[in-house]
Amino acid sequence: MTETGRVTLYHWEPNANSGKPMLTLFEKGVAFESHYLDLLAFDQHKPDYLAINPLGTIPAMTHGDLVLTESTAIMEYVDEAFPGPKLMPPDPVDAWRARWWMKFMDQWLGPSFSMIGWSVFIGPSVRSRDPAELDAAIERIPLPERRVAWRKAISGAFSPEEMAESQRRVALGIGLLEEALGKREWLASDSYSLADINGFNLAYALPLSQPHLSNDTLTPNILRWLRAIYARPATKACWKMGRTDMAKRVTILESEPA
Ligand SMILES: N[C@@H](CCC(=O)N[C@@H](CS)C(=O)NCC(=O)O)C(=O)O
Fold first, then answer.
1. Is pTM, for the whole model, over 0.90?
2. Ligand 1, atom 14: nearest CA belongs to which residue?
3. How far is the CA of 161 from the centre of ligand 1 (A)?
4. What are phi and psi of 69, to 5 degrees?
5. Ligand 1 in contact with 146 (CB < 6 A)?
6. pLDDT 10s per residue in the chain (258 long)?
7. Which H/E stretch holds residue 68?
């Protein structure tokens, strides 16, 4: 039975895991209450939010009495529980391809993007704060692996081997994306799907963050795909919800092909 009631999304910027359910809700035309959590202020580990998601990670969504976590599973729930355009392809092979890409992004490529992002952005953003306060904030993090990630980001302790492996995966992932988008208009099928929403949230800033690997000459299909997603009204509305410079990176997609 489908749940009824108000939808509230607990999210950070339109980016990565937060951006996935945000953009899905906009594409489906589902009205939702936005509850912004400032990840850099450690809002996600405060008692009010831990009462919603005891793991202390973002995003989470409530629908009536139901509490949902895990961004990709939330996207699939939103697609199935609400009217609006279907965002999982009806053809079984296309649906398999959509799930293949989402799994690849979530488990293999995403963590590498994330490690690079945490080392160049998250760590430096909080590093100058009072060390005792930072230590106390980290001690409040429920998941041990997130405590490790925060400590490494703050002290710049991701090893050269870890960073090199992340760069290797990013380069390989860009190659696979370019190849797939040379075969069809969208990532999984001939229609826009959750795989595109998932992929865009990780890859929208590629031309800015990896300009030597992703640009109009080397990866024309990736650039075509990113610009087509950025041009959608739902994407524009979603990215307007950004509050920091992180979300502004999407404007790189306003540039014309070289
Ligand atoms: N697998 C989870 C991962 C959630 C996750 O780790 N989110 C990050 C932000 S993208 C987070 O909450 N980080 C905060 C922290 O580690 O303190 C999902 O897809 O929802």
1. yes
2. 57
3. 23
4. -130, 175
5. yes
6. 467 899 999 999 999 999 999 999 999 999 999 999 999 999 999 999 999 999 999 999 999 999 999 999 999 999 999 999 999 999 999 999 999 999 999 999 999 999 999 999 999 999 999 999 999 999 999 999 999 999 999 999 899 999 999 999 999 999 999 999 999 999 999 999 999 999 999 999 999 999 999 999 999 999 999 999 999 999 999 999 999 999 999 999 998 887
7. strand 66-69
CB neighbours of 254 closer than 8 A, spacing ≥ 6? Answer: 230
Residue 39 CB–ligand 1 contact under 6 Å: yes
Residue 223, Cα to own-chain centre: how many angstroms? 18
Task: Assess whether the C-beta atom of 203 lies below 6 angstroms from ligand 1.
Answer: no
- Quickly tell me which residue has 């994330």 as its tokens: 114
Substitution candidate for ligand 1 out of 17, 114, 143, 145 with most atoms within 8 A of CB: 17
